[in-house]
Every structure is written in structure tokens, then in C-alpha cells.
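Give me C-alpha cells for this 326-residue protein.
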Amino acid sequence: MKSVKRVDYIDGYRFFGILLMVMGHVGFGTEFNHWIHAFHMPMFFFISGYFYKKQEIGVLFRKRFFALWTPFIVFEIFHIALYGILNGSFSIISILQYFTYPTYEIPIAGALWFLPALFFAELFYHVTMRINIEWVKSLVIVLISSFGIFISKYIGIQLPLAVDVACVGVGLYHLGRLLKEKYYVLINLNVLITVIIFVFFSYSSLFSGYINMRTGTYSQMPMFWINSIGMSIAILNTMKYVYSVLERYSIGRIILGYMNSVGKNSIVYVCLNQLVLLIIILVLNKLHIGIELIQGRLLVLLLVLCCLKIVEYIVLKTPLRRIIGR
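Here you go.
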């Protein structure tokens, strides 16, 4: 296999996660949603842990606050205000109330839940890493992760700002770090093994009970961890091979450029994909273009991705880029 830059195929990994997120919002059936929810958000916590770097808590807080909280607050207020204006119920109180609700209840842009969840997961993990005794450190990680699942699965409570999801994310974050530091061989699998584990964990994800981190649904806890990590490793290896093949051809390099762009600016897609999707569906309905069949869903997906690429360009070329830390 031809050597490729790590950052390239990891951007491809993120692109794949974003593609699945958008497809999930478009809607491609119950089985598809069952499959992707088993791993498509856990994989983002996992890859964040892969890039773990020890730093002072204050430095981390400032850096990640501007990178994650700025777009979260700006786009949350924007979507809540837009929803309120369209429904004739806009008020400052309505905006403040959503900061106390489970984050996925944000109107139009429920996907914003991921931003505070990642922030708190990273913060909790870095605080835990300050513990000097290794076994205590490991125990705390297990306890934090277990708490996140326990409070939503058994008590039926979801905390504001996705703090419960962040707790589960701590475990995924740690496993991503371990992969890079101790089990790097697992991202250098040959093609046959990569295909086998991709198929195996895809099948396992479909038949292991429904998982949805956003809503705190964990049907089978052991399989949640096994499937999410298995699929994350499979996707990492798959992207390495995809990149090694596509970079040989001019059209392939164009495709890789698009994938890299989405991966690097994935926050734009997280924050605005549902609004773009809503607008496109409204327009297609006005034009009496059916979207119920698979052909219609594929058309919607294509239009959403194209429009989001335009939005990404606008954001990066205007002062709006400061919102996403560019």
C-alpha cells in the first residue's frame, strides 16, 4: 500500500462520519439509522482521543472554549431565534431555556449537541490525566463512562449541554488515545482483514440492539463499546486504502480534495446541515418533487452536500470564519 499522509486519511475518516450524519438526517430507513447510530458519533470522540496531547487545563479550556463553544452559542441562538420568529414565539427567555434542556431538543439544529459534549469529554479527560496513580486514573475513566450510560439508561435523565454524553465520550476518547499509543498496529491492517472487520462489525451493529448517544439509548452496553471501536478501526483502515487508490488519478485527487475540505471544516456541516436540509425539502415540496422514494432521498442528499459546500466556502471567505475558529 502506498504511504499517505496521516492527516489526509483522517480527514477522510471525518468526512465519512459527516456523510453518515447528513444521510441520517435525510432519512434512509430504519435499518440504515440503526447501523450508523452504533458508531457514527462515537467515532468522532474516538478520533479526538487519537490526537490527545497533554496540556494545562487553563490552556485547553481557552482553546477549546473558542473552538467549540463559540459556534455552539452563536448557532444555537441563531436557530432558536429563527424557529421562534417563524412560529411567532420568539423571546429572550425562550433562548435561555434551551440552555437548560437536553441539547438535542434545540430546534432545527439538534446536531449541535455534539459540540458541548466534545468540550466536556476533553475537559473531563484532561482533568483525569492529572491523577498520578495509573490504576486510579483508569478506574476514574471507567466510572465516568459508566455514569454517563447509567444516568440515561437506568434513571432516564439526560443532563443539560449533553454532559451525560460527554461522560460516555471520555471512555471513547481514552480508547482512541490507547489505539495510537499502544495498539497502532490496528490501523495498519491489510485489505482483507479490513474488509472482514468492516463487514463483521457492521453486521454486529445491526443485530446488537439500538444505540443512540444523542438520546441516551444504549440497548446492549458491552456491544456498544465493541461495535463502536471495531467500526472506528475499520473505517480508519478503509480510509487509508481509499486514499492510497484515489490519489493515483486526477479525478481521484479532486474527490480527495473535497473529502479533505469537509473533514477539516466538519464543524460547518454539524452546525448547518439540518437548516440546509429543511430549506431544500421545503423547496422540493413547493416544486412537487417527490422525495419519499430512494431516488428522491438521494437527490436531497446531493443537493444538501452541494449547498453545504457553498455555505462552507462563504463561511471561510468572510468574517464568519471567526465563529468556527478560522
